[in-house]
Amino acid sequence: MERLTNISTVREILSRHGFTFSKALGQNFLINPSVCPRMAQAAVTDDNTGVLEIGPGIGVLTNELLQRARKVVAVELDKRLIPVLDETLGEYDNLKVVNADVMELDLKRLIAEEFPGMRVVVCANLPYYITSPILMKLLEERLPIETITVMVQKEAAVRLCAAEGSRDSSAITAAVRYYADPQLLFHVSAGSFMPAPKVDSAVIQLTLREPEIKPRDERMMFRVIKAAFAQRRKTVLNSISSSMSLDKGELSGILETAGVAPTARAEKLTLTDFVRISDALTEGGYDG
Hints:
Elements lengths: L6 H10 L12 E2 L4 H9 L5 E6 L5 H9 L2 E6 L5 H7 L6 E5 L7 H8 L4 E7 L5 H10 L6 E7 H7 L10 H9 E9 L4 E2 L6 E8 L9 H13 L5 H9 L3 H10 L13 H13 L5
Helix pairs in contact: 2-3, 6-8, 9-10, 9-12, 10-11
C-alpha cells in the first residue's frame, strides 16, 4: 500500500484516530517504500506460508506480507493502533490482529490454532528496547517456525550476526548461534522511519535448526555465557569466577579441563568452548 509510506497520508490517518507516538513503546513507522517489500520477499518463499508479525504499527510491512502469505497474524500491544489497522488493512481476509503483549502470549498454542498445515515464519520490525527478549522467547520456546526475519538496531544486528571469536560477539551472539544460523540481509537508514530514530537499522534473518552441539545442562551453559560476558574486559577466569562466585583455583582447573585458557577473553570463545566449560562444571557437581 504505497500511501502508507507517504508522510502526509500517514499523518492524516494518525490524526484522524487521535494517535500520537509513544517513546516508551519504541514506535517508529517505516516510510521508505523499498524496505518492506524486501523484508516480505525474504521471509515468505511460498504461498502456503503463515506469518507471525510482531508490532505491525500502521501495517506497512503487514500489507506486503498479506500479498504473499496464506495468512498473517499480527500481534500489536498498543490498542490505539487496532482501529488504525482496521482502516489500513480492512480489505484483506487473510489477516488476524491480536491485541496483546507478545511476551505474555502462548505462542506455541497460537501457531497451532492459526497456522494448521502451513510452514510458519516470523517477520517484524522489532522495537529496539525489547529486541533481545523477544528473540530469545522465539528461540527458547522451540516454536515450529523456520525463519525469523526482523529489523533491529544496526548495532544489535552486528552483534547478532557476529562470527564466533570476533570482537563484535557477545552473550546474545552465542545464544542465538545455539539455536539458529544468523545472516545480515541489508542496512536501513534512520531516515526510513517516522519519526526518525537516532540510529540506523538493519534487517537480519535467523534460520532455525537443532543445536549442533548440546551441553549436559542448557541452563548451566547459558549461565556460563552470561557470566563470561558480564565483565568482558576481564579474562574468562576473573569474569566467570566473580559472576558465579567460583573459587579461582578450582575454576582454573575446570577451564584447563575444558581446553580453554584462563587468560582468554569471552569474545574469543566459541559455542563449543562454552559447552565444554558448562559440562565440566556439571560433571564437577557445581549446581550454582
